[in-house]
Write a structure and sequence with these properties.
The complex is a heterodimer of chains A (34) and B (507). Chain A has one helix and no strands. Chain A is mostly helical and 34 residues long. Chain A is rod-shaped and about 45 Å long. Chain B has a single domain, classed as Amino acid/polyamine transporter I. Chain B is built from 22 helices and no strands. The radius of gyration of chain B is 22 Å and the shape is globular. Chain B starts with 7 loop residues before the first helix and ends with a helix. The model of chain B has no long low-confidence stretch (mean pLDDT 94). Classes of the chains: A mainly alpha (34), B mainly alpha (507). Chain A binds chain B through residues 1-2, 4-5, 7-9, 11-13, 15-17, 19-20, 22-24, 26-27, 30-34, and chain B through 7-9, 12, 37-39, 41, 45, 203, 206-207, 209-212, 253, 256, 259-260, 262-264, 266-267, 270, 274, 423-424.
Chain lengths: 34, 507
């Protein structure tokens, strides 16, 4: 696999997956899910 | 007393389920590939942060602050704004009439997947056997309905029954159903992704999907594609998010809910792209052709290219086929009932109808109109109506929402209301996005689309289709929105108070 495609894959996962996890963690730690 | 989500998680899962739809699997991957590969992630993230998330926050705030469906929430912001809420609801109604037809297709294909019924020529299977469109095309009878497709009517009825029962059951029932219909397609996409990654040729597909072309960033069209994709994927301007948020308590964390929904939507689309392109890479390898020759999007991807790729699977192709069409069906299902809920809640608010009666009326009418799209000539009408509602209807509604709320009501008031109860505080950038960036981008999209359509009729369809299913339809929906606003309804004034900190500051 081309290096640039691997970098795109990792960056995409970090941005979108990381963004979701970050907001989910804030929800869990602060106001909660209920 | 307005219904309530039983817990916050139900709202978030429902909002994600609404946003994550067919476009995540059949549109986003193609747009990425076509707009600079991995480099497209930059404009997409910018569009998400400057248009998608701010607009979503705005819609969540309108719903939870004014405790009403889109028309009622807009009316409570300022009475003369009600028509935009109706435009959104009517656009959502228009979309559900044909979206349910696509659900019917996916159910028909799911049935056929057990035996790989589509055979070697999936294109012929779709157009001739399932849609029964070929006689219409051969006779060049564009616009003719030519009767209902006998293959589609039963799946269409089943699809509508599923939508109706969920909406009929109310917000609590909907909150329970989305706990299955949202995570299930996500898990199935993961399974398809792992299957795709373990196939020979997967790397070629991924290279095709993600190799960045940074010169694309200098192309205005790529940036507009990013804004267009963000706008269409997040269920904005359809009245859905306002309706869903109206069932939230007033102290909800608006900003974090919007971040979570938007990033979950983007993540699903990104992973969907991996599932699609690894499989297309494998298919290209088996056929000994470049990946570019098998790439497709939309209906062509889901109902032609992917089934043909399934035929070539080395192990248990029928299992992959069933998984794929369950994915398509469940991706579409929660988007479909969110669209219906947006309309039902508006009808309930305006005419003081019970949920059950509103659900029967809205679903019944949408079902009857939707028969057009399961007719033998229905695909052409679906294509036409979808193009106009998306590119002219939704873009105009988004533009009006930004202008009226941003300038007329006050973006700063919305921001204050968001910050009142949100953990992640938002700054003045929100006002700039709502008042300037998003409207400017939407105006550009609208003008470019308009010029395009004036120069060439969409897909070369005949003039009466352009009028009835295009310009005339949009004009009719907008006129109807104004009529609904002028019609004095029976909504109660209960449910909203004007004592938020944001409003007190204004006094």
């Amino acid at each position: 696999m081309e290096t640039s495609a691997v970098v795109s894959l990792i960056v995409g996962l970090l941005i979108f997956g990381g963004g979701f996890l970050w907001s989910a963690i804030i929800a869990t730690q602060r106001k909660g899910w209920m | 007393m307005r219904e309530r989500w039983t817990w916050r998680g139900a709202f978030i899962v429902a909002a994600i389920g609404s946003a994550v739809g067919l476009g995540n699997l059949w549109r986003f991957p193609y747009v990425v590939y076509d707009s600079g590969g991995g480099a497209f992630l930059i404009p997409y993230l910018v569009a998400l942060l400057t248009a998608g998330i701010p607009l979503m926050m705005l819609e969540f705030t309108l719903g939870s602050r004014f405790l009403g469906s889109a028309p009622l929430a807009m009316k409570r912001a300022k009475p003369s704004f009600e028509f935009v809420g109706w435009w959104a609801v009517l656009a959502g109604f228009g979309i559900i009439t044909y979206y349910a037809a696509i659900l019917g297709w996916s159910l028909r294909y799911l049935w056929g997947a057990f035996t790989l019924e589509w055979g070697a020529d999936a294109g012929n299977y779709l157009f001739d056997k399932v849609l029964q469109l070929m006689p219409v095309l051969e006779a060049e009878a564009y616009g003719s309905l030519s009767g209902i497709s006998t293959e589609l009517i039963i799946p269409f009825i089943i699809g509508w029954l599923a939508i109706f029962l969920v909406v009929f059951s109310g917000i609590r029932g909907l909150g329970r159903v989305v706990m299955v219909t949202m995570p299930l397609p996500f898990l199935l996409i993961l399974i398809l992704m792992v299957r795709g990654l373990t196939l020979p040729g997967a790397v070629d597909g991924l290279n095709f999907y993600l190799t960045p072309d940074f010169t694309a960033l200098a192309n205005t069209q790529v940036w507009l594609a990013a804004y267009g994709q963000v706008f269409f994927t997040l269920s904005l301007a359809m009245g859905i998010l306002i309706a869903y948020a109206s069932y939230l308590p007033k102290d909800s964390d608006i900003s974090n809910n919007a971040f979570m929904t938007s990033f979950a939507d983007a993540l699903t689309a990104f992973l969907g792209g991996i599932a699609v392109f690894t499989t297309l890479g494998y298919m290209a390898g088996q056929l000994n052709v470049p990946v570019g020759e098998v790439v497709a999007s939309g209906v062509g991807l889901a109902f032609v290219a992917y089934p043909e790729a399934i035929n070539l699977m080395p192990v248990a192709p029928a299992v992959i086929g069933v998984i794929f069409f369950v994915t398509i069906f469940t991706l579409g299902l929660d988007s479909a009932f969110s669209l219906t809920e947006g309309v039902v809640s508006a009808v309930m608010d305006k005419f003081s109808l019970s949920r059950r009666l509103a659900a029967v009326l809205v679903s019944g009418l949408a079902f009857l109109i939707g028969l057009i799209f399961v007719s033998r000539g229905g695909l052409l009408w679906l294509d036409q109506v979808d193009h106009f509602i998306n590119n002219f209807g939704l873009v105009t509604i988004g533009l009006f929402t930004c202008l009226l709320i941003g300038w007329g009501y006050g973006a700063h008031k919305i921001r204050d209301q968001i910050n009142e109860h949100s953990e992640v505080k938002i700054g003045v950038w929100f006002d700039i996005c709502i008042k300037f960036i998003t409207p400017i981008v939407l105006i550009i999209l609208l003008v470019l689309n308009f010029i395009d359509r004036i120069q060439t009729p969409y897909e070369g369809y005949p003039a009466f289709m352009q009028i009835v299913g295009g310009w005339g339809l949009i004009a009719f929906l907008f006129l109807l929105g104004i009529i609904f606003m002028l019609f004095k309804g029976r909504e109660s004034s209960a449910g909203v108070d004007d004592t938020s900190e944001a409003d007190k500051k204004e006094v």
